[in-house]
Design brief:
single chain; alpha/beta; Rossmann fold; 8-stranded mixed β-sheet; 25% strand; globular; EC 2.1.1.222; 2-polyprenyl-6-hydroxyphenol methylase activity
Length: 232
């Protein structure tokens, strides 16, 4: 429980009841979900038949989609209220997900090398030690398995777009959702991954066009980006 920020847990817990409202503060997560799911699918040879853990699953938007793709799916988080929302939605939707209130580090200690695929999306920038989470993800995945991360780059452009633009001007996210000093440069994330024994296979940017209100993947990693790793 040392690698957790109580203020971050409280922040998302207060909004938990709105997690599955596609027009709420979580609208961006609903809109980017198909894009990131397709990218994950394309790089791991499909999710069907695989065992997957979604680290920092929140209310379960990605987690349920992974389960719908045919994977045996575990979702973990330390924020109790979003996890309850995820469990309730799973019951309502009939999509089977094993949700657990446990940290990545503790699950890695209990079930090392147990998963074909590990996802950790939009979570690293909310914990005190992202390197610890990345190391736990590396321990969770089987040799030959895949690990996927997404986070925010740290530079003036990301501050302008992700905080000033998204939180204060366009109101895509609640003000205070992100703290700039916690953003992670691609070089830093790559370093953490290599230290944990992972190989970095691919990186791609996630872009938002405020005129068309459409998200897409592209080469620039300047703001939001996704990373695919593998364990040799």
């Amino acid at each position: 429980m040392s690698n957790v920020d109580p203020a971050e847990l409280q922040k998302f817990s207060e909004l938990a009841h709105r997690w599955w409202d596609p027009n709420s503060e979580f609208r961006p997560l609903h809109e980017i979900n198909p894009i990131r799911l397709d990218w994950i699918n394309s790089l791991c040879g499909g999710l069907a038949g695989k065992r997957v853990v979604d680290v920092g699953c929140g209310g379960g938007i990605l987690t349920e989609s992974v389960a719908r793709s045919g994977a045996t799916t575990v979702g973990i988080d330390l924020a109790r209220k979003p996890l309850k929302v995820a469990k309730l939605h799973s019951l309502e939707s009939g999509v089977a997900v094993d949700y657990r209130e446990i940290s990545a580090e503790d699950l890695a200690a209990a079930e090392p090398e147990s998963f074909d695929v590990v996802t950790c999306m939009e979570m690293l920038e909310h914990v005190p030690s992202p390197a610890s989470v990345i190391a736990a993800c590396a321990r969770l995945v089987k040799p030959g398995g895949k690990v996927f991360f997404s986070t925010l780059n740290r530079n003036p452009r990301s501050y302008l777009f992700a905080i000033i633009g998204a939180e204060y001007l366009l109101r895509l996210l609640p003000a205070g959702t992100h703290e700039y000093q916690r953003f992670i440069k691609p070089s830093e994330l790559s370093g953490y991954a290599r230290q944990a024994g992972l190989e970095v296979d691919a990186m791609i940017g996630l872009h938002y066009n405020p005129l068309t209100r459409v998200y897409s993947l592209g080469p620039s990693l300047s703001v939001n980006y996704l990373v695919a790793c593998s364990r040799p």
